[in-house]
Amino acid sequence: MSVKKQDNRLKKIYFWGFVVYLAAVLYITVFSREPGERRFDMEPFRSYILLIRDRNYFYAGQIFLNILMTVPYGFLLPGLNVKYRSLRKVTFMGLGFSTAIETIQYITCRGLFEFDDLFNNTLGASVGYIIFVVLHRKIIKLIDMGK
After folding, report:
1. Every domain of the chain and the residues it spans
2. Where are the extended beta strands (E) located within the chain?
3. Is the confidence at residue 123, as pLDDT, over 60?
4. Which of 62, 89, 97, 108 is 20 to 30 Å from the Cα of 28, by its Cα?
C-alpha cells in the first residue's frame, strides 16, 4: 500500500473516531443531564483532599473517570493533525477542551464547573498523547497488514 493511501485510511480512522468521541463526550457531559443550578468550585484538588482525608472513595471514581474521559482526545488529536504531535501542544489543547466542556456545563446549568475536572481532563489528554506515541506505529503496521 502506498504511503499516501495509508495516510488517507489512517486519517479517516482518526477523523471518525474523533467525531464519535466528541458526540459521546457532549452526550455524557451535557445532553444526558437535567438542568439544575449554575455552580462552580475552584478549590484546587478538593476531590483529592476528600479522597485522602475522608477516605471517600466516590472521589476516586470521579478522578479516574475524568482522566479517562479525555484520554481519547489526547490520542486522537495528534492522529488528526501532525501539528499536534507534541506533549505540550496536546496538554494545552486538552486544557482548552476541558475548559470548553466546563463552560458549556456552567452556561447550560448541566454540571459543576470545577478546577479538579480541568486538572484531571488535562491530565487525561496528556496520558492519551503518551499512548498515541507508543501505539501510532503499531497501528500503521496493522493497517499495512490488512491491505
Report:
1. 3-145
2. 39-41, 112-114
3. yes
4. 89
